Amino acid sequence: MKLPETTTERIERKLDRKLRLIRVARGEEPADVVFKNATYLNVFSNDFCHGDIAVSNGLVAGIGSYRGIEEIDVSGRFVSPGFIDAHIHLESSMVSPAEFARAVVSHGTTTVITDPHEIANVMGVDGIRYMLEATESLPIDVHFMLPSCVPATPLDESGCALDYKAIDDLYDHPRVLGLAEMMNYVGVVNGDREVISKILASQAHHKKIDGHAPGLSGPDLNAYIAAGVYSDHECSNYRDALEKLQLGQFIMIREGTAAHNLRALLPLLNQQYYARCMFATDDKHPLDLLQGGHIDYIIREAIACGVDPVIAIKVASHHAARYFLMNNKGAIAPGYVADLVVFDDFRHFNIQQVYKRGRCVFAEGEVQPFTPAAVSPALSRRAHDTFRIAPVTAQQLSAGDLPVIGLVPGEIITQNLGQAAAPDPSRDLLKIAVAERHHNTGHIGLGYLKGYGLRQGAVATSIAHDSHNIIAVGTNDEDIAFAINRISALQGGIVVAEGGKVIAELPLPVAGLMSDAPLEEVNDLLEQAKAAAHRMGVSCGIDPFMTLSFMSLPVIPSLKITTQGVFDVDRWQYI
Amino acid sequence: MKLPETTTERIERKLDRKLRLIRVARGEEPADVVFKNATYLNVFSNDFCHGDIAVSNGLVAGIGSYRGIEEIDVSGRFVSPGFIDAHIHLESSMVSPAEFARAVVSHGTTTVITDPHEIANVMGVDGIRYMLEATESLPIDVHFMLPSCVPATPLDESGCALDYKAIDDLYDHPRVLGLAEMMNYVGVVNGDREVISKILASQAHHKKIDGHAPGLSGPDLNAYIAAGVYSDHECSNYRDALEKLQLGQFIMIREGTAAHNLRALLPLLNQQYYARCMFATDDKHPLDLLQGGHIDYIIREAIACGVDPVIAIKVASHHAARYFLMNNKGAIAPGYVADLVVFDDFRHFNIQQVYKRGRCVFAEGEVQPFTPAAVSPALSRRAHDTFRIAPVTAQQLSAGDLPVIGLVPGEIITQNLGQAAAPDPSRDLLKIAVAERHHNTGHIGLGYLKGYGLRQGAVATSIAHDSHNIIAVGTNDEDIAFAINRISALQGGIVVAEGGKVIAELPLPVAGLMSDAPLEEVNDLLEQAKAAAHRMGVSCGIDPFMTLSFMSLPVIPSLKITTQGVFDVDRWQYI
């Protein structure tokens, strides 16, 4: 066992770098790099200041008049602290953290705080460790909040269950900042001892606890906050957000692929309230990553809506750093990490250059090449081998009367449409199945789905919230079984199949959630699969895979389907 | 050796209280106490909100409509979070921490951050431990910053020298928040390895480092801040403060007994800058404590000068809590410590009631009785036995030609007035002596003082910055020797003597700095001693003892006197 570093050892390790920083700040030695003639956002005086920014060993040494070994003239442009995504699940990008980093760093993002909730539901602590290793040595810093709800509900057959003891060691990792979104707000306000213990554990480590409590209000909200939940990213209206802010929560204004809360929460982005706000995306899918931008997109939108640029940029940088106690991030000042974004003007807000610890990581439209750290072989093998499921036969899927789940276009809530006896594509009545795939239990939940539109074949995915079993929908049992087995053979992914043939597919061999391929390739395969599903009948208003992914989340009313069958969320029982 | 508490032990210890907090917040159980109909400052939404404030076990459980075992109607008045003094040396009050607490809690102060610099210069780590023990169980919370400069300079013969290793264990104390004012800014910017190690040690413990750098600017200021100094309380003009704020330092606006910086720094107390400001006093002498108020006085003055009350009160409460990472202080919201101040209106700003962790500690003009924790006997004996000095004879004080220090009325700087051969009270030329009293070295520094005004006898004090040897001034060697010996016999204090008789005296037997007596008694003795000194000729514009205390501080130009003699600060040599 390696003993923790002593104060003396730490001081020895840091002293020489600190002494050089001081000499550079005094002008006794040239800086590593100087950003000459910078007009930069001063997050302390809330205005744009002017000067040379001197950097030594990745830290800002001083601002004033400096010379450097390298000098970069940034006159005529603006410099901001790097942007921070306060809450995301990296797995939602379907690509490796390195590919994700490559995409967002070009948008000025230099730090994200991820909750590895999805992979933890598949691989437990190994999943968190995999993500920690896969996020070393990237051009962005990836910090972690430890998943609080694995499994998400007692109904879920996930790959793993984590109590506070299972994750306790991880709090000592320097990139772990706390406990991720406490979705089980019912458990919190009911005083569930195991749930409260998780909160107390994070507090014992002097770390944060993020919240997730859409619409929670009044005494229950007081209880949730008093328990120790410091933020919320589920506010979709101003009233909800203001109540939470007034009771002391930080508000993460979420604008991602699935949720768009910026416009509703614009009334927070003024002098009175903005100090308690940050930006977050929660999830970013491949197409949105490629075309939509990231935190820069939210800033641009906010400014276009009339928000003071100083406010927008501070919410995008300084405030998340402060909330998460990242003491030396989110500002351009002596001693701070030199994460810098150079942009053209407030209207276009084009990101021209990005510097991570003073090193150029993006310029002239190109992300600088980088070599991500390799994940240790054992952990990599483990992540690529997460399917424990015997081949499924059509016979296993045959059934008589089953409940019918009714899709609501554009929503993740569903309707209870009674019972049916068999699929009937002519009436848009499909069979839906969730096959347990972590422990080879042979559990397969069955039901019917109406409103999806598929007219032939089957669609399946191993991204199925939150336990990530295999969820499939189809017009006949043979195609459903084929699609499920194909996903198992791929070690995860998305499959569109018909008549024993793969029509389109996206392999996601990392925990059944992520690809090892480049983002562009993943996006192409995903879009091709989407197109195939739509050609086979899936209604145009429906995302064929994302919709399916949410059918297995047994906390959203009215009906959902798990490995145990169709569950009535309103009555909290299987039917 | 007691092993540190494990996460599991900590959770067990906290769980039941947390569960009750949640039940109270939900309204399932009555609160311990409810403040009914409160109009309270919401530091998050920056306005005054209305509701019942429910408290359980010293924490705010919820705000809304609540019932409690005890209910206190606060309608028609205002409620604010308790005030915080961001920087003080408790020893400056000359009374015990309990007496200090009794005085300031009536002014709405519920937390102070003290730097036990004075007692540490006498007793080293034992002095810090003494203050930690003497500040348990008070009606205010006393947090600590560890002295960074003991001795204050290499010239000082102090009782102790503390390097970073000597104080490292103390960072684990739950009330220690970091490293106190780094006065040795010359050492910092010159990259003194021992000095930088102290900063790195505090950073290694994830704690703050306070600054003290009057007038430091430009590259040197950049270096000082880059080294890791996060705040400054020495700003006496707006320009200096703005430069420090812009470079990332928090500004402690100081308004105490000696320094009055509020008016000069009023331009910081607006929307643009106030988020980075706090209030501090640095020192509070007995009379000022009794008559002047504390942080409430600064708020009242600021409001009278036109500062928005929301801004003034946040600077007085929330901001210090945030800076020092006191996560659950400085706000009225679920989970926060229920430190509450009830006041009448913004103009008079009369403090009517004060609650510490929900318990009344001040009401109707009376501080509620409390029993301070007893300091452990060994430590108490040690604190009352700090004089190691043999009796001084007049012969030891005789000398020929010596330098003359010229007082500048109202300043702590001095002038170099050449040499003299003997005291001559008719020309206001007195002898001044500093007698080493920690290690019985027999060192006595001698010189002459002009401008003090004494016409007969001698004045001496064991409060002599920063090493707290015995400093004495007099018209003749016999009276000086008598006064020094009397202070030694008292184990510290202030003495006015003539012709072998004590004319007035204030015993300060705790480390030669503090009394065990009530504040009123200490103040009476001190004022009587002042009056006696003035009757004996000390000029009316001069505080006889405070002036003397600063004569031994060898960092203020031009001439100062140490145990080694008169020191020329401008030329940095003894003369």
Give the N-terminus to C-terminus distance of chain A in angstroms. 51 Å
Q: How much is the average pLDDT of chain A?
A: 96
State the assembly state of the protein chains. homodimer
Number of helices of chain A: 19
Gyration radius of chain A (Cα, Å) is 25 Å
Taking the sheet with the most strands of chain A, its summary is: 9 strands, mixed
Largest Cβ-defined interface:
A-B, 69 and 68 residues
User: How large is the share of residues in beta strands of chain A?
Assistant: 25-35%
Shape of chain A: globular
Q: Low-confidence stretches of chain A at least 5 residues in length (pLDDT < 50)?
A: none
Coarse structural class of chain A: alpha/beta
Helix content of chain A: 25-40%
What can you tell me about this protein's structure?
Two copies of one chain form a homodimer. By secondary structure, the first copy, chain A, is α/β, with parallel strands linked by helices. The first copy, chain A, is 29% helix and 27% strand. The first copy, chain A, contains 19 helices and 28 strands. In chain A, helix 3 crosses helix 4 (125-134) and helix 4 (125-134) crosses helix 15 (377-383). The longest helix of chain A has 20 residues, at 7-26. Chain A is globular. The model of chain A has no long low-confidence stretch (mean pLDDT 96). Chains A and B meet through helix 1, strand 3, helix 7, helix 8 and helix 9 of A and helix 1, strand 3, helix 7, helix 8 and helix 9 of B.
